[in-house]
Amino acid sequence: MTLSVDEAGRALADPKAYADDARLHEALALLRREAPVRWVEAPDYTPFWAITKHADVLEIERNHEIFLNAPRPLLGTAEFDELNRQRAEQGIALRTLIHMDDPDHRVVRAIGADWFRPRAMRALEPRVKELAKRYVDRMVEFGGECDFARQVAVHFPLYVILSLLGLPESDFDRMLKLTQELFGGDDDELQRGQSNEEKLQVLLDFFAYFQGLTEERRKHPTDDLASAIANARIDGEPLNDFDTASYYVIIATAGHDTTSATIAGGLQALIEHPDQRKRLTENPELMPLAVDEMIRWVTPVKEFMRTATRDYELRGTTIREGDAVLLSYPSANRDEEVFDDPFAFDVGRDPNKHLAFGFGVHYCLGAALARIEVRAFFEELLPRLGSIELAGPAESIATTFVGGLKRLPVRYSLA
């Protein structure tokens, strides 16, 4: 069945479309070709402009003073947007870095920035490699068959980021469940419930946990990122409870869910492209390029929204003041004008100008850590891997924000 342009636009507001690669990329290719700046009216959603070309996503990201994150940083239903507006008025809304604009964004981002600089990443690398080995060893313990997405990929990055925060391992399973409920709110299997109240409760559970952590770290400061956040001061004052909890939430969730999606999706790509797995195994110096290709291929963050502060012309179309735009990263990362053979998985792709980490002032704080984790895992796995194949169908999360595989059954031989 051939999609119309209107149907292609509405696919961007359908969580199930992101669980169907063929359908999603058919829609995105059509929009890039025929309507790269497209007004989308989808049931239950406030209308928005869909931005699908790499150059246009870059242009909007560069113009961060014209296109703001607030008040609609993510795609949600009109009801969800209104609920968030009410929460903000009550002072109980999630307010992470992705919800902020300058000057707040600049000063709040600086709180955690030192923990993700190259020097800090080099210090963390031995721990990352140790954990990578632990989880590859665990694959051996599984006896040659496992659900890689559920049993390996979600746990390894979680341990890394929660170790950086300084959380006890006894709390890791709780954090995993809350993260999956938060990002899987549109997935029938992962969601806690379908109502906005049930989705709000997930957030409140996060806040309750991190409020206790903040109190503990303020009484007994430690040498970890959680303590740095808890004791941070802006203009001499500590962050309020919700801003502090919001900071923890974005680190603990985005810091592992995106990376686990890349690791699982990267392994699937290597299984489905055995020539590329062979090439990478025989040429391990390609690993840095391969990591970025896995990130481009998976693109775990599907979209961010921006709101225009004035009229702005893009490709001959006027985006009016107050209009929302959706930046489609999976589309930008398959743009035929930027990537040679964009639907080929190429572990030696160079250059690779993917936008999976965003661009400009909102460039992902944890990009370097994500690259280190993906690299460490596959540097441990590939030399030990004999054979590997799918042992059942792979399944993806239904989402419009962050996601990837939720199941990847594999059968393998591993030293």
From TrEMBL:
Keyword entries, A-Z: Heme, Iron, Metal-binding, Monooxygenase, Oxidoreductase
One GO BP: cholesterol catabolic process
SUPFAM superfamilies from the UniProt entry: Cytochrome P450
Statement: the UniProt record of this protein carries the keyword DNA-binding: no
Molecular functions (GO terms): cholest-4-en-3-one 26-monooxygenase activity; heme binding; iron ion binding; steroid hydroxylase activity
Entry similarity comment: Belongs to the cytochrome P450 family.
Protein name: Cytochrome P450
Species of origin: Actinomadura montaniterrae
Phylogenetic placement of the source organism: Bacteria, Bacillati, Actinomycetota, Actinomycetes, Streptosporangiales
